[in-house]
Structure formats: structure tokens, C-alpha cells
Amino acid sequence: MAAEKMSLSKAINASLRTALETDPKVLIMGEDVGKLGGVFRVTDGLQKDFGEDRVIDTPLAESGIVGTAIGLALRGYRPVVEIQFDGFVFPAYDQIVTQLAKMHARSLGKVKMPVVVRIPYGGGIGAVEHHSESPEALFAHVAGLKVVSPANASDAYWMLQQAIDSDDPVIYFEPKRRYHDKSEVDTAAIPGPLHAARVVRPGTDLTLAAYGPMVKVALDAAAAAAEEGKSIEVLDLRSMSPIDFDSIQRSVERTGRLVVVHEAPVFLGTGSEIAARITERCFYHLQAPVLRVGGFHSPYPPSRLEDEYLPGLDRVLDAVDRALAY
């Protein structure tokens, strides 16, 4: 099949459709995922085509959704559950971190947990409270969970395929403000490793590392910096657990500088671990401290203020200028 241009949300839908067609043990569960097709219409048409036994509308009970998925996984199914919005995941947090993440180790490797938890996350859509959070660091901190986030339609399709194929639980964060961004998707391609970072724009002066919704901002910043003669390498991290530190190290050894960008608050965010590890690994290559750009250490604000809260082009370019000034 030739590559097709599609939106990130359509790519996820296509990936779920492929999984349902390929493996009868794949199930989709969540609030309004069936008849409505999800609040973002990501699962549109799937219940109609595969039936209510494969695409299941659940009660409004996140803990029950994840707990049921764990039971189904124990019986050989491969559940893909949707948490309707990022801020709704916390009633299920106990199930995820004390059960889902621990079963493999608790059983000395005998029990597999092929569960994918899909979470639309991040801001930029003008939503109300509890609808724009970026809680990825909370899950990346928990051993036993894989945590990933696609930044484009191709990765959205293939990373979800790989997550569903995984025998370990995967938290799959979907950047909701990128749902309508389009790019080429080759559904017949051979994908790269799920947790490998990828250079999406080469450069020589500084590495700009981001994932999910901030990759586009990083690319825009690199393009703006190029107009001033600065060569910025953009690295799409793609995975928050595990993190591909080897790829980051190789990039920093080329450029000598690193700025990490994410929507989540800077305080104890993913960028903190990256900054610490790269400082250890690349101490003699770094020409400037590793800088971090992210949200503020405060509750997510009302929608009128989210443009001030979210790291945008100006804040990223300011960090780039500060790093290059050393």
C-alpha cells in the first residue's frame, strides 16, 4: 500500500482497526469509545464494524476500566483502554501502578500484561480544568511501565501497533492538540524500535530535544533560529520510559549543547532526568549547562491563560539563545 496522508487521529483509528482485524484477542474499552466514537472521534466507526463485544462502551469508572483490562489480560486478551482525558486517569492510578506495572515482576516473569492505556494529554485546546494535564513523568517514574508519545501521524500508527504487540503494559500519550496535524503514513513500512529517539532536523550548534506536542514547536524554533544563522538539531524523543539516552548523547557530542522541551512542569519533569544523565555522560562535551523549558509549577490555568502557561516559540528561542551565549 502506498503512503497516505492522514491526520494523527485518523492514524490512531487506522492502527486500532488494523489491530482488531489482525488479532481477535484485541479489545477496545473506554467511556464513549463505541457509539460516539470517542470525544475526539478517534475510535469512530470501530464499534459499528467490529461489534459491541470488541469495542466496549464502559461506565464512567476509570479504576474499573483498567481493573477489567488487567483481568482480561490475565485471560489472554490484549485490551486497549482509553482514558477520555489526561486528568481523568488518577482514579485508575492505583490500578496502573500497583497492579498493572507489578504483575510481570510479581509473577517472576510468568504473567504478561499486554495492556495499552491510551491517554489524550496536554493543552492547547481551550479546555476546562482537568482536561489539559501532562502527567507523563508520574508514569515514567514507575518501573514496569513503558511510556511513549507520538508527534506525527506515522508514529501514531506504528507506535500504537508496537504498543499493542508488547507483552508489557504501555502508557500511550496522545498529543490532543496535534490530532488534526497531517503527515504521510506508510502502513506497509517496517517501523523502527518503539523506544528509539529520532533526529527530525539535523544541526550542529545545539540539540533541541522534545516529544509529543512540543516537537512541532521545537521544529518551528529551529526554523526561526536558522534565519539568524543558527543550526539547531531537533531530536524527537518519542519515549519517556525507557529514554533513548544513547541517541541524545550522540547528538550532544555533535552539538555541545542541549535544551529539553516539554509541556509538563519543569520541576521534576522528564527533562530533569535527561539533564542529569546527559550532564554525567557528556560532561566534557557540553559547552553550556543543559537547559529545560516547560510548564510552570502550578495547576493548569483557565483556558484564557494557557498561552502564557504553555512553552511556546519565544520561550524555546530564549533558552536556545541562553545556551548559545555560553
From TrEMBL:
Its EC number is 1.2.4.1. Pfam families: Transket_pyr, Transketolase_C. SMART domains: Transket_pyr (SM00861). Transmembrane segments: none annotated. Keywords: Oxidoreductase, Pyruvate, Thiamine pyrophosphate. Gene3D superfamilies: 3.40.50.920, 3.40.50.970. Residues 6-181 form the Transketolase-like pyrimidine-binding domain. It is an enzyme of class 1 (oxidoreductase). It comes from the Bacteria. Its cofactor is thiamine diphosphate. One of its GO terms (molecular function) is magnesium ion binding. InterPro entries: THDP-binding, Transketo_C/PFOR_II, Transketolase-like_Pyr-bd, Transketolase_C. This is Pyruvate dehydrogenase E1 component beta subunit. It comes from Streptomyces iranensis.
